[in-house]
């Protein structure tokens, strides 16, 4: 009889180990870890929506040599294309830089 119990016991222990609903059940994340996860979630959200609605327009204003003009107003095709490329590059980098800065500031506050 004890021999059968020895064979049955490992099977019961195995089933008991598989009965948890998730691998994180019972794990208590530290406040610092929760803070970092929140920073990462905010960063993903920031990147998904872009950092500023008007970033394209402000980037275009930075790329155009004259104030109150747009790239499409430049007569020279080569200069117009260069302006458009600068504005596009700025528009793509702006969210990465501002969202990254926000994430870094958030992470530094996590301790």
Description of the molecule:
The chain is mainly α. It has four helices and no strands. It has helices at residues 2-17, 31-49, 55-63, 77-108. It is rod-shaped and about 65 Å long.
Tell me the overall shape.
rod-shaped
Integer average pLDDT: 74
Portion in helices: 55-70%
What does the radius of gyration come to? 28 Å
How far apart the termini lie comes to 57 Å
* Quaternary class: single chain
The SSE order reads: HHHH
Instruction: Give the biggest sheet.
Output: none
Low-pLDDT runs: 1-22
Strand element count: 0
Number of helices: 4
Summing up helix and strand content along with how strands pair, one would put the structural category as: mainly alpha
Strand content: under 5%
Descriptors:
single chain, 68% helix
How would you briefly describe this protein structure?
The chain is an all-alpha fold. It has helices at residues 2-17, 31-49, 55-63, 77-108.
Layout of secondary structure:
Elements: H1 2-17, H2 31-49, H3 55-63, H4 77-108
Helix pairs in contact: 2-4, 3-4
């Amino acid at each position: 009889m004890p021999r059968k119990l020895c064979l049955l016991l490992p099977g019961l222990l195995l089933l008991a180990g598989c009965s948890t609903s998730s691998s994180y059940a019972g794990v208590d994340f530290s406040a610092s870890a929760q803070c970092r996860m929140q920073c990462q979630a905010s960063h993903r959200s920031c990147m998904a929506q872009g950092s500023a609605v008007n970033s394209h327009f402000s980037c275009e204003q930075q790329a155009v040599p004259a104030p109150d003009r747009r790239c499409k107003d430049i007569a020279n095709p080569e200069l117009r294309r260069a302006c458009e490329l600068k504005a596009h590059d700025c528009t793509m980098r702006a969210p990465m830089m501002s969202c990254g800065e926000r994430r870094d500031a958030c992470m530094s506050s996590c301790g």
